[in-house]
Design goal:
Blueprint lengths: L2 H5 L2 H8 L21 H9 L6 H11 L3 H25 L3 E7 L4 E6 L5 H5 L4 E4 L4 H12 L7 E7 L4 E7 L6 H13 L2 E6 L4 E2 L2 E2 L6 E3 L2 E3 L4 E2 L2 E4 L9 E3 L5 E9 L5 E5 L9 E2 L8 E2 L11 E6 L3 E16 L2 E9 L11 E4 L2 E12 L3 E8 H8 L7
Parallel strand pairs: 2-3, 5-6
Antiparallel strand pairs: 1-2, 4-5, 4-19, 7-22, 8-10, 9-10, 11-12, 12-15, 13-14, 14-15, 16-17, 18-19, 18-21, 19-20, 20-23, 21-22, 22-23
Helix pairs in contact: 3-5, 4-5
């Protein structure tokens, strides 16, 4: 990298050069404050190691409406819930109906169709809810809907573990359109489906060239995602395979080595020409730069933060997984929905929960003034697809 890049403010130069410009997604910010100040929670706080930096805790206080104590307790509880997910699912067996982080109780909640499995699931530390439909049944419903022809008035659809149904999201102003009504009717025939309204359709979050710590593909600015050995991952809609990539200072970084959009929304770029990678997510001065130590998937309901080249650092909650998002370019499958804000240029940025990498910003609706809903491409399938290894601290 050129000397002037090295001399740039450390908060952006090293990290962008490292292939990790930030994390970004779009939220409908929902804050939960109840249940975090009990005596048992206090005990767990003192017993557990400090889960995050003071700056990260401050960001959670700002965006989730938590006290510092509540944020500390919640991160510790989320870490425990994340570790318990696999054991709880195995304990539930074929009766598994989904799971999420219960922000009221600060525990992992698991849905089961067979009450006889409840005790085994509780032994993993999770709470239990008995439901009608298994996760397998809901996934089959999703696959059937994914095969339908989708009108523009349908925003997305996903499994809602909490309600034990597939939710089809329809743009409010398009609800009465004949093609939307026909899609909803066909979706209901696929299985347990409910319909929800959204204010607007999702859009990708790429933008024209603006200042900041981005990368550029021609006349488009996106955000660097997570560093991998030899490069970084980002959003597929930011550029096709072979597209040249320049850094914040317009010096050459590398090229897109692989890219998919729609269907999926992921890509990876090689790092060369004097650039290097760092296992860091940029805090933009709002929080300390965050070290990446792994990519263990957080449960639904867990807090999550992101940093992007437009709107910098924001936090929210994981709202749903396995969401199909209907962009104007076509559906993208297996996305995760969050309540964090993002805007144009944040595409490709990182979502992180604690010190665990979660995914790559794709798009959404709303903005960081009024709030919104964003979607990210989960990280681990991207690493697997391209045979990449996450750069960790």
């Amino acid at each position: 990298m050129r000397r002037k890049t090295v001399l740039r403010a450390r908060v952006s130069a090293m990290l962008v050069a490292g292939g990790l410009a930030a994390a970004a997604f779009i939220p409908t910010a929902t804050a939960t404050t109840s249940g975090a100040d009990s005596a048992s929670d206090s005990a767990s706080t003192s017993a557990a190691a400090k889960p995050a930096s003071d700056a990260l805790l401050s960001a959670m206080q700002r965006d989730l409406g938590l006290t510092k104590k509540q944020a500390t307790v919640r991160l510790a509880a989320e870490k425990k819930a994340t570790a318990a997910q696999d054991d709880a699912r195995r304990a539930a067996g074929a009766s598994y109906g989904g799971s999420w982080f219960d922000t009221e109780r600060n525990t992992l909640a698991v849905a089961v169709t067979d009450e006889a499995k409840a005790d085994a699931v509780r032994k993993t530390g999770a709470s239990v809810r008995v439901v009608e439909h298994s996760a397998k049944r809901l996934a089959a419903t999703m696959k059937k809907i994914d095969k339908l022809s989708v009108p523009a008035g349908v925003s997305s659809w996903q499994v809602d573990d909490r309600t034990n149904r597939v939710v089809v999201n329809v743009v409010d102003s398009k609800e009465s359109d004949d093609d939307v009504r026909a899609f909803v009717a066909d979706a209901r025939e696929s299985g347990p489906v409910t319909v929800a309204k959204v204010a607007e359709a999702p859009r990708t979050t790429a933008a024209g060239t603006v200042g900041g710590d981005p990368y550029y593909t021609g006349n488009v600015r996106c955000s660097i995602g997570f560093s991998v050995h030899g490069g970084f991952v980002t959003a597929g809609h930011c550029g096709p395979k072979g597209q040249a990539v320049n850094g914040w200072d317009r010096s050459r970084i590398g090229e897109f080595q692989g890219s998919t959009f729609p269907g999926n929304d992921y890509a990876w770029v090689n790092v060369a020409n004097g650039w290097w990678t760092e296992p860091v997510v940029l805090g933009w001065g709002t929080v300390s730069d965050q070290l990446v130590r792994g990519s263990k998937e957080a449960p639904i309901g867990a807090s999550i933060c992101r940093s992007g080249s437009t709107t910098h650092w924001h936090c929210g909650n994981i709202q749903a997984k396995n969401v199909t998002v209907n962009y104007s370019q076509g559906p993208v499958y297996s996305m995760t929905q969050t309540s964090v804000c993002a805007e144009g240029g944040d595409s490709g940025g990182s979502y992180i929960s604690g010190d665990q990498a979660q995914g790559i910003t794709s798009g959404g609706s709303g903005n960081c003034s009024s709030g919104g809903t964003t979607f990210f491409q989960p990280l681990n399938p991207v690493l697997s697809k391209y045979g990449l290894t996450l750069h960790t601290a």
